[in-house]
């Protein structure tokens, strides 16, 4: 494999590792949110969109090159004279197809990672909203219980007052 395809394959393996780490429940959305809001990530984030689209452009160029190579070697009819020339053609076709799959999966995983980051941030924000709603509901329930107890105490006091009034009124 040439240096450029080795680099793209290495990038693909890196993306696979990142996706696996993001999918596994090793880190909570709170930890991911802290990482995405850290100074380290902020330095990268300033130009992240530019890097992302520039790298996707380069990967797209390599994808088009792989498609061109696949067409070149799949349409050629080998000369029936030598088996070695036919095998060389098949080897070149295999390499072109391998490069096509490596590049297309790298592009696909770049979009998957971008979506996973967005979903992790949204999940953290939804968890915060859920915690706030639960806290508000608990406060409302506590206030309702307190109001009910106050109301019960007032009813009990009025009944005691009426009983005392009846008992004192009968003497």
TrEMBL record:
Membrane topology: Multi-pass membrane protein
Xref: InterPro entries: BAP29/BAP31 (IPR008417), BAP29/BAP31_N (IPR040463)
Regions that span the bilayer: 6-27, 48-67, 100-122
GO BP annotations listed: endoplasmic reticulum to Golgi vesicle-mediated transport; intracellular protein transport; protein localization to endoplasmic reticulum exit site
Entry annotated with the keyword Iron-sulfur: no
Subcellular compartments: Endoplasmic reticulum membrane; Membrane
CC terms in the record's Gene Ontology section: endoplasmic reticulum membrane
Keywords on record: Endoplasmic reticulum, ER-Golgi transport, Membrane, Protein transport, Receptor, Transmembrane, Transmembrane helix, Transport
Pfam family, one: Bap31
Residue ranges constituting the BAP29/BAP31 transmembrane domain according to the UniProt record: 1-132
Function: May play a role in anterograde transport of membrane proteins from the endoplasmic reticulum to the Golgi.
Family to which the UniProt record says this protein belongs: Belongs to the BCAP29/BCAP31 family.
Name of the protein this chain belongs to: Endoplasmic reticulum transmembrane protein
Organism: Papilio xuthus (Asian swallowtail butterfly)
